[in-house]
Amino acid sequence: MRFDTPSFLTKACEIFVQELSFRAWMCANSHQRKIILDSDIIEVVASMESYSFLNHALHTDRHKHHFDPLLMPAKKLHHKFKNKPSTSHLIPSSQHLKPQPIPEFGGYFPCVSISSPLPPTDGCHIPLTLPCLPAEEAYPLLPTTITHAPIVTSMGFIMNNSSSNIATLGVTTPLQLPTIADPNILNTCCIGTIASTSSYCVGYGNPSSASSQDGGAEIHYPHIPTSLQFPPASPVVNNSVSTSISIIELNHIQSEVAHIGNAVHLHSDANAAYAIDPEATINASDDQHQHGNLVAEVIPTINVSGDNKNINWDEVDMADDSLLINFWENVMMNEDPATSLATASTVDLVVFPHDMLKHKGFHHEVLDDIDSTAAHAI
Amino acid sequence: MRRAVPDNGKIAKDAKESVQECVSEFISFVTSEASDKCMKEKRKTISGEDLIWSLGTLGFEEYVEALKHYLKLYREVSIKPPSVFSQSCLLLHSKVC
């Protein structure tokens, strides 16, 4: 054989690797780093026209490597968040039950349509805690309301926050709740989570604070309009006191706040259903702004009553209190006739029966788990 | 990969994996191009010349020159002792990098 072609190709690959490594090293140097990260590789690939064929390969690789962790239990995911180097850790957000547009991160993925890398974690940790978990303590009356917790999709987390959001909103409240992509869960979660704070948020004119977020997390909960403000609730203890329900519209952030109570069950179950660890901590960078659109699709209906009464959020006109009152009355009708909504100073428990939860197909074992947790909380 | 990086530099594991993916893609890319050329010319064997041609076509012209030297030295190696070959390779590396 005159010439060994495989060894020739091997040599070509060797040269390719060396060039790629060298350029990546230059890139790392430009960032004052001595460690070559995969972000450097991506940067090199993006900068070289002759490497354009690698864009697809890299993105495919990213999805393969970064979606798998999302299938892991949430606790493992939690550890991954903690252990991974900051700049190299990306949290893809594209996998979810319902497709959602995910904003691009920086300039690294010009061709990426879905990946949304986690911003470098410079230290802003957003603890994700279920409202039911800190049940021992009353929900603090915080001036901040909407906590932009990572949006947990069915497959994983979508970091949806911005530095300004974090700074303004006060990340560390125990009420931070991962917003779940599933609209059904989403609404209820919002309901579950934001209740106590949101009331205060409203009280403090939160819309301004939240809206001040520069393109920060945008949580689109379709059509939960304007500010229905109920009087701020007394500190809400899980499963105990009724809460106020307020609907806050913050720029693009609309969240419906309701009583946490058993809604936590719903939320928890939702979390569990999506393998979300409510205690997962997500590192968010203050440097990054992500214009995340939380699930644009919100559940059109939510089965909140035992008789399968569907509530179409799109159709519910929450323009005024009376409608909301009516809504909740309908919701509560089969659950607790005694409860009445929206009195000036009282808040009613929204009871989400387990039956309803089961109807929604939540994992029973998780339900039991949550129940036991909630029971401790009481 | 480490040869291209100074001694004080480190390479993240993710970076290595990414580079692996890139190289795999590179091989596929170049080989498929060379394969297409061979099919057009109704040949069944991909030669080094085909690879050089495909590298040039795909925008890796700088590789072409270095690999031509390598090809030349490789052929000489079959005659000359291996020490010359390794030295020539190092020379090529330095030229490329």
TrEMBL record, chain A:
Top-rank taxon of the source lineage equals Eukaryota
Classification via InterPro entries: Histone-fold (IPR009072)
Q: Which GO molecular function terms does the record list?
A: protein heterodimerization activity
Q: What is this protein called?
A: Histone H2A/H2B/H3 domain-containing protein
UniProtKB/TrEMBL annotation, chain B:
> Among the entry's GO cellular component annotations, what is one?
CCAAT-binding factor complex
InterPro entries annotated for this entry?
CBFA_NFYB_domain, Histone-fold, Transc_fact_NFYB/HAP3, Transcrpt_fac_NFYB/HAP3_CS
Query: Where does the record place the Transcription factor CBF/NF-Y/archaeal histone domain?
Result: 1-55
Entries under Pfam families matching the protein? CBFD_NFYB_HMF (PF00808)
Tell me where on the tree of life, at the top rank, the source sits.
Eukaryota
Q: Which UniProt keywords apply?
A: DNA-binding, Transcription, Transcription regulation
Name a GO molecular-function annotation. RNA polymerase II cis-regulatory region sequence-specific DNA binding
**UniProt record similarity statement:** Belongs to the NFYB/HAP3 subunit family.
Protein name as it appears in the record: Transcription factor CBF/NF-Y/archaeal histone domain-containing protein
